[in-house]
Each structure stands twice: as C-alpha cells, then as structure tokens.
Amino acid sequence: MRTTRRKNNLLAMIWHHPQGQVGLILAGLLVFAAVAAPWITPFDPYDVTQRAEKGLAPGWPHLLGTSISTGQDIFSMLIYGARVSLLVGIVTGLAIAFLGAFMGILAGYGGRFWDTLIMRLVDVMLVIPTLPLTIVLTNLFGKSYGMIIFIFTIFGWVGLARVIRSQVLVLKSSNYIKAAQLAGASRRYIMFRHILPGVSNLLIMSTALTSAGIMVAEAGLSFLGLGDPTAISWGKMLAEAQSGGALLFGHWWWIIAPGIGIFLSVFAFMRIGLALEEVFNPRMKRSGMLLRLFKSINGSYIQEVFDAMDDRPETDEAGKEAAP
Amino acid sequence: MSQDALLLVEGLKVIFPTDAGIIKAVEGIDLAIHPGECLALVGESGCGKSVSSLAILGLLGTPPALVRAQTIRFDGQNLQALNEQQMAQIRGKDIAMIFQDALTALNPVMSIGRQLDEVFLKHCGMNKSQAKEASIEALRAVGVSSPAQRYRQFPHQLSGGMRQRVLIAMAFAASPKLIIADEPTTALDVTIQMQVLEELRAMQRKSGTALMLITHDLSVVNYLADRILVMYSGKIVETGPVKQILKRPAHPYTEGLLTSVPRLDTCNTRFYQIPDQVPNPMNKPSGCHFHPRCSHAGELCKQTVPSLRSLSPQREVRCHFPLQKGEGGDSQHA
Amino acid sequence: MLKVENLAISFPVKAGLFSKRRHIKAVRGVSLTIQKGQIFGLVGESGCGKSTLAQAVIGMQRPTQGQVFFKGDDLYTLSTPAFRAARQNMQMVFQDPFSALNPRFDVQRIIAEPMHIRGGFSREQMEGRVLELLNLVGLSPEDRHRYPSDFSGGQRQRIGIARAISLHPELLILDEPVSALDVSVHAQIMNLLMDLHEELGLTYLFISHNLADVKDISHSVGVMYLGSFMEYGPTAQVFAQPLHPYTHSLLAAVLTLDQQKEPVITRGDIPSPIEVPPGCSFASRCPLAQPKCQVETPVLLEYRPGQLAACHYPVI
Residue A311 and residue B303: Cβ atoms within 8 Å? Predict the structure, then answer.
C-alpha cells in the first residue's frame, strides 16, 4: 500500500522552489561535468604527452591557462576535479545518512540499553580530534579517497544520530504508534513503517547539507596533501597553485578556478538542502517567497475581495459573494 | 453609542493570500468596548475571533496577512496611524493581553518575579525595589499563595492555575485600560478554572478595566461578560447583552451553540448537534454562511448575505429569519 | 468484562545524590468492574491518574501492584501470544486528534492498519471493511484516499474511532475523546459514540474531566482524585445525590448557563502526587474536613446500595 505521496513530487517541489531550482540546475551541471569529463575536456590532464608550455595565461586553446609547475591545462583539471568533490561529497553524505539513521533510530527506539550505549559512544567520538587522527590513519593505510570517505563517515554519523534520535523520541510519544502497538505491532514493524518514514524528511535534508559540508572538508584535506596524490582534485589544485607560485607570479586564475569550483558545488547542495527544508516545513517559508507571492497578486482583485465583504443595503438584489 | 467607546473598531477585514487561494478570516466586523465593560467575542475555532484581536493590536504581519479597517480607534487614538514602536508602547501599558497557554506565554528561563517586575519597570517608571514590592503585592492580589517565595520560582515549577494567575497579574500590573483575554481558562481543570475566573472578575470590577474575552465557552461568558458578540465564519452574526441573548437567542447559530452545550441539570439521551462542519475559510457557502447547517434556512438565505440589522437598541442580528423580533417578541416564522 | 483489582502504579522520581528516593504515586489502590455492554465513566481532574490507569488497562503500563483482569484473564500474566490477542480485543481512542493519526498515511492505510498488523486478511477484505467503517462513522468513501491534514479535528476523531473498531473489539477505552473538539463537533462525536455503542454492543471505559459528558453517556461512574476513587456508583445516583464532598465540589464548580446560580469555589491547589498527604487526600481542600480526616485514610464504603464513597463524613 502506498504510504507516502511526497516522494513522488519531491523533485517537482524542489524545482518549483526558486532557490531549489538554482541548486538543482547547478548540481546537475556539476554532475554532468564530472561524469562527462573525458569527453568535454579539451585536454586530458592525466596524459603527460598533452602537457603544454608551463605558466600560460588564459587564452586559446587553454581557456584558463596552464599550471606553472607542470603545464597542465587548468580548465581540464577543473572539470576533472569535480569528480572527486562530488564523489566524496555525495557518497559520504549517503553513508553518513545510513549510519546516522541506523544509530539514531536504534538509540531512540531500541531501548535503554542501546540508547545509553550509543549516546556514550557519541560523546566519546565527539572528543576525538579528527584531523590528527586523519593524518595518522592516512599515513598508516595509504592516502586514498576511499580512506577519506571512510574517515568522514566514521566521524560524521555522530551529529546526525543525535538529531535523528531526538526526532525519534518525539515520534515515539505519538498516539498512532501507541495505537499500532495496541493492535499488536512488533518493534520492527513500528521502526520500519512509522519511525523511518517519520525521520525521512530530516534525513534527506541533512544528506544534502552534509554533502555540502563534506565537500569543503575534502578540499581542505586534499589541500593538506592527505588525499590521493595521483588524482586531480580542487583542493590539490589549490595546494599546487600555492607551491607553484601562483601568487608570486600573479596567476590568479589558477587559484580562483578551483575556489569557484568548491564554492559552486557547496552552494548548489546547500540550496537544495534549504529548499528541502522549506518544502518540508511550509511554515518556515521565508518572507522573501511570501513577499513575492504578495507582489504578484493583483491589487484590484484584492480590493474586490475586500469590497465584497461589505453589507449590501437592503434594497440591493444581487448579493452573491465573489468567488476566489 | 460609539462616542464614548474605549475601543472602536469598524469594518475590520483580514485575509491571508496563499498559493491555494485566499483565506477570508475576518469579513468586516465592528465592535465597541466601553470603559469598565466586559465584552465577549464568541465563536468556534476558525471563526476569526483570535485573528481579529491580533489585527486590532497590530500583531499580524503583512505578509502573511492583509488587514483593512475603516476605523481602529483606542482611547481617541487612531491605532492604524501608529508605527510599530508606538504600538509597542500601547501594548503592555494601555492594552494588555492574556493568552491561553501560560507555559508558552511566559519566558521559561526567567523567574516569574522578574517577568512581573519588567512590566512595572517598563511601564510604570518604578525602580527595582519598588517593582519587586509591587510584584509581590500583585501576586498576592490574584490569590497566589506565599507570593514572596513564588516570586523567585520559574514557570515550570508552578501549576497551570498558578501560571494563569501570574499572567493575569502581569496583565493588570500596569493598570491598563483594556485587557484582551484569549481563552484564559480553557486549559484548566474545572475547580481551578473557577478560582481563576473569580479572580479575574474581581480584579476587573475593582480596577474598572475593560475586558475583551475571547472564548468558545458560553458558560464562561455567562459568568464574566456584559455584552456578547457571536462570530461565525468571519462575520458577526449576533450582538447584545449577555443575559438576553443566552435566554433568547436570535440567530440560529447561537441557538445551536446553546443547545449543544451539555448540561448537568438536564438529562439527554442524545446531544443536540449542529450538522456538518464549519465552512472552509477559502470556500465559503454563498449567501448566508450558515445556511447549509441551519434548520430555519429559506431560499433567500442561499442567495443573499444578510446584513447586520438592529433588533432593538441593544441587539443586532445577521439573519433573514431571526428567531426573535426584538425585546420580548415572539419567534418569527421562516 | 473488565475487572481491576487494587491497582497501584508508582513511578520513581530521579533523585539527586543526597535526597531520598521518591515516587510519584499515580494510582493508589483502585478497583473497578465493568460489565459487558456497559459504559463506565472515569472522571477526574488533571493529575488524578486516570490516564495512567487507562495505560495499565490496555497493557502498556505494568502495575506496581494489583491486577487487571480482562474477560477473566490476568492480563499481565498472559503468555505473549495470548497477551497480543487480548489486546487486539480492546482498543483505544485518544484525546488529541492530531497526534493520533500518522500524517504520512492515507485514511485507508490508517484504518486498515490494525487488520494489516494482525494479518490474515486479504486486500479485498480490508478494503471492504474500510468502506464499511467509513460509512459507520459518517465519512464518505472518497475520503479513504485523503490524508489526515485534509480533515478537521472532529473528522480525525471519526477516523480514529473507525480504526479502533476495525478489529471488532469488545472493549473500547476512550481517553478524553471529545475534550479537544469544538462545541458543535463535540456533540456530533458523542452521538456517534452512543450510536456505535448500541449498534455494535460495545463496552466503554469513558475517561473525561467533563462531567456533563460523563453524566449523559455512562451507566456507572468513578470519581478519581489523586490516584484513588473518592466515589463510585451508578451515574444517576452519584450525580443526583453525591456522597463525597469532592464530587459535590466538582458539580458545584461547573459553570452553567443558569443565570441564577453562582458557582461554589473550592480553594486550594491539587496536591502533588509525590507528596501525598496522610489521611484523606482531599482533606486539605475539603470544606467538611475534621481532624480525623488528616490522620486516617478513608476506605470506600457502601453508604447507599451500589454507591460507594471514601469519606469519613459523607454527605448523606
């Protein structure tokens, strides 16, 4: 039996939301760029034979010039960099969603034991310094994006689990859950049929926002050199730009390009996340949207509506209310 | 009659435009409250009574609401001409509000003593020690036991009845000219409700403050109010002195409300019920809004909106076939 | 049908390191019997323990002491499958129409859920039953595809009622079913409940703080205060000639539309269930209290045939 109607229109609803639309378009472009990289880039930055003269300024055929250190085409690197960001961001976001939801629901609904256990775990994990640990782990087990995804997930589920748990606690006191229990529902039934759909809104929203945050974090780690040294990523581009002397020689395009890349991808996902938030909580509609709605209303129509409310004098025949 | 009114409202209209349509919350109501009078605004949920009070106080933002009124005059001042700062001055000093749910109306992290003090400090120009004294006295006046101790307590430490009393104390503190009470005792137990209402009535009579009581509970109206305005689906359908209307209602809706109240002194095997539901505020019936549920409705009711007509110098009704013909008259036939 | 014997439920209160362990004594020694087909009204103000009692009756709150017998079986000693079966034979209608229905489910799903959980029904059977129930509670067949947010409070309550009777339960527990509703809808739902009671031969445990409702719908009534019964007996008798001072004060405090009568005010606040005073729990507020009342706890005694009161000085 159908349980939700929202999922079907979710995409449509985000699309209609002005900010969501922007986010979706951007994200779509980025995904397209990432996937189609080998076909849409003029040069293959991995191909050593395609290196050009080093330190070229933007022009043709190198739209964004070439790097000072290796002579790779910056534009192509930019496109390829999207792959890493999006991959790490989205995959980690999803992984955190799963793990966080699982733990959160277990803690909230699974009973005192699980609740205490998981919350203690959360407390411990929040205290662990993530950056030094990341450095240690990548040095031990090798620098790869798989490692980074793993580490982000291990530390990232904690916040989500807390939030989900609170939501579960709220839902738990709902009477419809009591009614189901009365009818003899098993714990598992309630967890999957009632609780999980109940937190799905929160999950989807936080996945979008988490992904955005992860993308920034990943860029930071790559900048520090903790990512895969063989892959091209925006963070790494920034590191190379710095060490290659972009500032020194005034090659601002080398720095701005990956910066904009990071900015756009974060922006896109945050917009989607915020649009989701407003879609799920219509009451939080920002005044911007309402103002737009208000401005678009025909002023004279409003006046008609108001006038129709007045009492007519006794002798008047017609008295029908104006229909909306 | 409107000359010496403390609060005069004429032609108040409030709508809420939404994606799905326009919600017509208040459709042109007039009301007048005189000094020392208690006026009850009665109706069920969705009739627009709470929205009206918010609109009068300027607490409805635009968006989401659109408010129009011919007159909103308080104590000689045109409230519509004031800016937010000036309105804020009036609210709290000259007009106070008592809300339904004390727990959300009080600041949970401030002791109730301090919250009471604030009123005195802000609106009465007292200093801290004077305010504290006044607060403790105010608590005593509303019947709070051991006021000096309660002064230091926090809202969640008090029972529902106590909190409501604190709200009442806060409302009366600055000696306002008008108090608007929105369902002040609905959430309380029967015996506590009686205590609180008694305090409210005593304080109101003693201080001569005008009271606008918004409620759906007719028995509370009977206890507290002098005049009553019955609202239905955004319009006022009946006005008049409480005693007269409760004994001999003129509008079929008022009659329906009165008979569906379960009574202790009578024995029912079935409850009288008004059929159907309150109309959807976006899609109201044509003509008289009440006609689909009215047992006295005629053809005219479907087509034409009845105007508010005088039944007697003190009573008005909005009905083509009212049940009363004026003071001491017989029922009219449809 | 339902028999509760000497029920007591206490909740421990989290104590600090240095304070003594305290308990909230929500229910203190309550016994009641409901015959098949009867309607029992449970009246009391907030904090009297009526909701906790209801939770115990439906098997959601294990009593600290005492037993709950449903159709002769001690509920809390039943094996798991028997427990499940017993509970499916009793259902509950909740006070708040807004939290009683899952906003994500459509009406069809909500009403059919108990059947779905129980299992053993085909799709057609469930759909047919849903239509039948919708008709019974006064909703239209088209409504089954709508969502709770499309309905008003009264309509949601109808949906809740439909769900509750879907498995043909014999006992229905109604926890303040009309308290959150508007006046006109209030009456509609009360009528619906009375109709269903007649048509389906149900047994009701009707909990409310509204005396007039209880008076008109129930056959017997129990007046609760601070966890125990103050008075108990046939409704007509109790309301016409109350024995206990608390019942008197409840009745007198109800505002009526009668212009002549001034309500009688009962002073004082309801004591906390943690610090239950010794002796009669109502003594602190009772206008008829004597020294004995604060020392010795009165027991429910039959002062008139069928009518019991826990008072040393009942109003005869």
Answer: no
Q: CATH assignment of C2-89+169-310, given 1.10.1790.10, 3.20.20.140, 3.40.50.300, 2.40.50.150?
A: 3.40.50.300
What does the DSSP 8-state code read for residue A193? I
Would an 8 Å CB–CB cutoff place C51 in contact with chain B? Answer: no
Amino acid at B7: L
- Between the alpha carbon of residue C55 and those of residues A109, A316, C37, C52, the distances in Å are 19, 61, 21, 5
CB within 8 Å: B63 and A293: yes
CB C10 within 8 A of CB C228: no
- Of the given ranges (A70-74, A187-191, C147-151, C206-210), which has the lowest mean pLDDT? A70-74
In this structure, which amino acid lies at residue B291?
Answer: H
When pLDDT is cut at 50, 70 and 90, the band that residue B246 belongs to is confident
ipTM beyond cut 0.90? no
Cβ atoms of residues C117 and A185 within 8 Å: yes
Which pLDDT belongs to residue B228? 92
Instruction: Kindly report, residue by residue over C173-225, the tens digit of the pLDDT.
Output: 998 888 777 777 888 888 888 888 888 888 899 998 888 888 888 888 998 88
Q: How many of the other CB atoms lie within 10 Å of CB of A313?
A: 7
Residue B62: what are its φ and ψ, rounded to 5°?
A: -120, 110
Inside any domain, residue B303: yes
Taking only the tens place, the pLDDT of each residue in C96-138 is 888 888 888 888 888 888 888 888 888 888 888 888 888 888 8
State the smallest CA–CA distance between residue C168 and chain B in angstroms: 24
- For residue C287, CA distances in Å to A216, C83, C311 come to 72, 46, 13
Q: In degrees rounded to 5, what are phi and psi of residue C224?
A: -105, 145
Pinpoint the alpha helices (H) of chain C: 50-57, 80-88, 107-118, 123-137, 153-164, 183-200, 211-217, 235-240, 245-253
Q: Is residue B160 part of a domain?
A: no
- Omega of the bond leading into A129 within 30 degrees of 0 (cis): no
What's the predicted TM-score (pTM) here?
A: 0.77
Alpha-carbon span C107 to C140, nearest angstrom:
11
Q: Are B74 and B178 in contact (CB under 8 A)?
A: yes
Q: Which of B152, B175, B143, B180 is nearest to B56 (CA)?
A: B180
CATH number at residue B54: 3.40.50.300
Query: Computed over its alpha carbons, how large is the radius of gyration of chain B?
Result: 21
Contact B267 C190 (CB under 8 A): no
Measuring CA to CA, which residue among C67, C85, C95 is closest to residue C2?
A: C67
Chain C: closest CA distance from residue B55 (Å): 23
Q: How confident is the model at residue A9 (pLDDT cuts 50, 70, 90)?
A: low
Query: Which has the closest alpha carbon to C251: C235, C269, C239, C243?
Result: C239
Structural domains in chain A, sorted by start: 25-308 (1.10.3720.10)
Q: How many domains does chain B have?
A: 1
CB contact under 8 A, A319 and B303: yes
For B334, the token pair is: 């449809």
The pLDDT of residue A129 is above 70: yes
Domain containing B218: what range?
7-101+176-317
Average pLDDT over chain A, rounded to whole?
79
Residue A317 tokens read as 């025949």
Residue C235: closest C-alpha in chain B: B267
Q: Model confidence at B332, in pLDDT bands (50, 70, 90)?
A: very low
Which residues in B210-286 belong to E strands, given as ranges?
210-215, 227-232, 235-241
Q: Is the pLDDT of residue B199 over 60?
A: yes
CA distance A119 to A165: 10
Q: Is the pLDDT of residue A286 over 60?
A: no
- CB neighbours of C80 closer than 8 A, spacing ≥ 6? none
